[in-house]
Design a protein that fits this description.
By secondary structure, the protein is of the alpha/beta class. It folds into six domains: 94 residues, Arc Repressor Mutant, subunit A (Orthogonal Bundle), CATH 1.10.10; 95 residues, Arc Repressor Mutant, subunit A (Orthogonal Bundle); 98 residues; 99 residues, PTS-regulatory domain, PRD (Orthogonal Bundle), CATH 1.10.1790; 68 residues, Response regulator (Rossmann fold, 3-Layer(aba) Sandwich), CATH 3.40.50; 145 residues, Mannitol-specific EII, Chain A (3-Layer(aba) Sandwich), CATH 3.40.930. Helices cover 54% and strands 11% of the residues. The protein has 31 helices and 17 strands.
Length: 699
Amino acid sequence: MLIAYSRIILIKGKVIMLQQNSLYILKILLSHDIISIEELMSKSKLSKRQINYSLENINYWLESNGYNNIIRIKDGAISLNNNVNAILSTLSHEKFNYILSEEERQALIYIYIYLNIEVISMYHLIDLLEVSRGTVQNDLNKLRETIKCENLNISYSRKDGYQIVGDEKSIHYFMMKLIVEMITHDNLIDKYGKLVTNDFYNIEQLKHNITEALFESNKTISENNLNIISYIYIFYRKRNKSIQNNFMQETLVNLEINLKEFEEYEISKRILEKSGTEKEYYSFLASLLLSYVSSKPDPDHLDFYQIQEVIEKIITRLRKSYAISLSNQEKVFSQLYAHLRPTTYRLKFQYPMINPLKEQIISKYRSIYIIIKEILEVSEQSFQHNTSDDEIAYLTIHFATFLIEDVPENDKNVNGIILCPGGVGVSALLYQELIKLFPSIHFLESASISQLETIIDDVDVIFSTVLIETTKPLFIVNPLMNNIERIKLVESYNEKINKIESRGKINIRSIIKIIESYTNIFDKEGLIQELSNFISNNEISHVNVKRRQPKLSELINPNLIQLKVSATDWRDAIKKSAKPLLENEFITSNYVDAMIQNTEENGPYIVIAKHVALPHARPEEGAIEAAIGITTLDKPIVFGNKANDPVKYIFCLSAVDNSTHLRGLSELVDLLDDKQFYKVLEIASETSQVINYLKERNV
């Protein structure tokens, strides 16, 4: 979504406006040394005509402030050719006249009414939003539709003005949801602050006190979560004072939680005592700290062993059910603990967490996401509440970093740091990406933007997900880079730091146009991805290239499928399911023995769903090539798994490492929810029928 705002400048008697699209394009230019018009179109979702108009508008503004015009380079690329810090400084010292988007206006209306500061009329809302009466009425109607899902409504009377009607807990939850959703919208957060002018200093002071108290307690918090806690707390307290309805105590009684026993309660007490806040708010702030602050593993935590048990269940299920073993157990546990502890309390208190990268994560790491989602669905009792897709996507980030192989240590001659307001998960993923791209950089521990000033002397280069003003070399990075972005980042780094000129750039879409003129392309985006992978692997020669992950239909062939097989018991069933893989030299006989032995030692973890078993062993026990065999039994066999017995369908897996089988396995997990797939397995008389169905499903 583009944030709509503009700025008016008077020069030589003429008013020049840096329009919303132009300012958005300018921010993109500030983040790139060189960028093509095509890339600008892709990033901004604007047409070529709109881009050119914006560039003209930006040039007028640059001239008016004494900066150089944008320069055009060959092959359609452009460069800002200016001092980035100077432009950022100019932008920061000028006043903005923000024009909120429709979504932001509705959020502001809700928060304004939520705060219950005064009797609110239509005129108040017109003045607040600086739009017409008709626009306000339209926003109100759409907002009413939006909050229906929470059983809320907005009423109006002359006496009471606009009021939010519904259960107070739901009213409060929707406020929290809006804060979490909109926390990265700086212009809207600024408007939020102005709604509580008398408390605005308190917000800044609260953020300072929270940061200080957490530092003293050896805890970390991201910029986004610090803002989330501060605004939610201030807004909750502001409304609570006017309506005298503290539902927090009722919540704690229902959950049977005594927050006074937690370290976070003492931290909240220290924070709020400085401002003379009433004791009744200690528990609420403590609940926010538990839900949005990462913690290092500590056996003294009341919940340590509960969180430890959840982590061990997930890791065990990954290893025993899906042939995914994680190395560096201490690091894995520490990182998962830091994420799962606040997740557990968000689920208990039913506090929101919105993941802005959810769709990108699911797209890029779909294989891991599907498997983690399935594991959590089986383990819901550990969390006591359903885990949202947003939360699962965050957890997926962590497992994605665990499955990336470590780069061997080299001589490190440059100190780098990663700045990311999004939190530890995104920082960890970026770290894994960057150490592969830049093995000569020693990355310091990730820090918040506010901490940068204290460590800047130790930093040679900065990688950041947001644009900041700094004297050190700065590279803006996407939390989830594609191959082209990786190439451009390496080229930019080499040019700026190593003074190495990049080779001629390859435009993949130009190659696609040439191919299209000679043949039909049935999967254009797939071809683009394959070409970008190929170019990436050749352009960045020092990067460890991941082994390709084949589709399910590539892991299965007609020779690996057996229908209506007879077996005497589960051991016999595993042996017979492995026979095609053994005969076709995908596994050795040792692998078959290991599968049976693992089941004897670990129990029936391999029964992963109703009537479905996935026998496998460790790669070193005899896996030769990645493959999956399908065997249907004429009579179901008991494996010893009470929840999912008896087993009728066996998918024998040859796993050569931790990751090659992930895509095919995740597609199989998806298929296990497809009733039609089981019908095909039941009625098939030829193995080709099964293969054809997989191809129809495009897996």
